[in-house]
Amino acid sequence: MRKVELYRFSLPMEAGVILRNQRLKTRDGLLVCLTENGKQGWGEISPLPEFSQETLEEAEASTLGWLHSWVNGEQAFESALPSVAFGLSCALAELSGFLPQKADYRKAPLCNGDPDELFAVLGAMPGEKVAKVKVGLYEAVRDGMIVNLLLEAIPDLKLRLDANRSWTRAKADGFAKYVQPQFRDRIQFLEEPCKTREESRDFSRETGIAIAWDESVREADFVVQAEPGVAAIVIKPTLVGSIQRCHMLVEQAHNAGLMAVISSSIESSLGLTQLARMAAWLTPDTIPGLDTLSLMQSQLVRPWPDSELPVLEVDALEVVWRR
Ligand SMILES: O=C(O)CCC(=O)c1ccccc1C(=O)O
Ligand SMILES: [Mg+2]
Asked: How far is the CA of 200 from the centre of ligand 1 (A)?
């Protein structure tokens, strides 16, 4: 006997969360609950505006098609839409026990430009200190100075930086010039400094600053391989696809000697806790990039440990389909 429930959610975001060109007022998505033999499996399907190719409407239509097949015991094919493939694979993996319960709730704190906030968080962080700083939003020179300041002030800190392809080579060089040479190897990586992969590779070659692929991982021609200067790939499952596909990418990265970082696409606490479980399972030696819950005003169904945000329960959600 199989049963399905499909819910829609809309969680208010903190004021001022901007994604590329738009303000994100609410985080909208679907929750699916599969039941079979008295067991339940949950999954979150929430395409991220400005980042996902698919809209929520398209994701919903694809999900409904899959759920119809599954509940009727027919062959249900993996959706071509990454957010759908991810959420449904999570639900199936919970049903089958394939996704372990143990989670890695460490997260690399995100800094959007105010180093004072970061000092406080890092001071309280046990163990390995890794933070992620968004760069490329202000002047490259300012970014360089903030990186210096942080690395100088906290000797056991390592940084991940993320430029989201915002720099020309000249701007990226302007940044690098301000980072003291002795600090450069404490930059674990700089995600996608330049507009093209070729420019980013050149940048790394010339500055000695390691880089990581994020946007590139989702491009059709991308191949995971060892390259000079490349330290890591960032895997955002909602943008990439099923757990199986993410698992394969992690394996390919590790075989190539690259770090794989499981990372958030601003999922609700339900999806985020599943990402923390994927990280504990697939990348146990790497702190995942999951510090996005505080961008929201509410959690969803499953709380993240120690978060003080209120939790929206299932009964408060709109039911899209139930069978
Ligand atoms: O990677 C992280 O640590 C947090 C997630 C993050 O930065 C992010 C989240 C959603 C969309 C894009 C990005 C990004 O990498 O720029
Ligand atoms: Mg990025």
From this structure: 18
